[in-house]
């Protein structure tokens, strides 16, 4: 069993090929960008933001996808292979050993499907943190709000371009950082109140 590394949380946000309606018959949705942000657990500080552009093999970037994400076919034509991106996650970010997080389960499911279909080793361990659900539970919302709405509720700015992996990962890390700080403050207050 892989050892656990709890110094940082790896926040991941993916963008994938998409269309305004159903996918064309000869294409399927696949990852075109992996956004990464490392969050230092002790300080709650965001350490690094990175974007890995991935060249799709079974689809092309549609005008709708470009409008949504700002990613063009020309950009991903110069991207790396999905295999190389997964290797970077494992080797440079210890993704198998670290807790990793995303906003919702979409990113986890997309990775699982694409790894299975491409017969590539899944780059993450089993410790996945769903920040969307965590946010909804902490704030006692009746539903799980989108990332932009969660930032608004927390009175945090949306930094960068929404629907770009690196920027979204950075913003999600900001949400998670505030949630962790809230837990620590509440815990410290309760512990102090219970001291004789």
UniProtKB/TrEMBL annotation:
SMART domains: EXOIII
Tagged with keyword Ligase: no
Domain Exonuclease: 8-185
Highest taxon listed in the record's lineage: Bacteria
Protein keywords: Exonuclease, Hydrolase, Nuclease
InterPro entries assigned to the protein according to its UniProt record, in alphabetical order: 3-5_Exoribonuclease (IPR051274), ERI-1_3'hExo-like (IPR047201), Ribonucl_H (IPR013520), RNaseH-like_sf (IPR012337), RNaseH_sf (IPR036397)
GO molecular function list: 3'-5'-RNA exonuclease activity; nucleic acid binding
Protein name according to UniProt: Exonuclease
Organism of provenance: Reticulibacter mediterranei
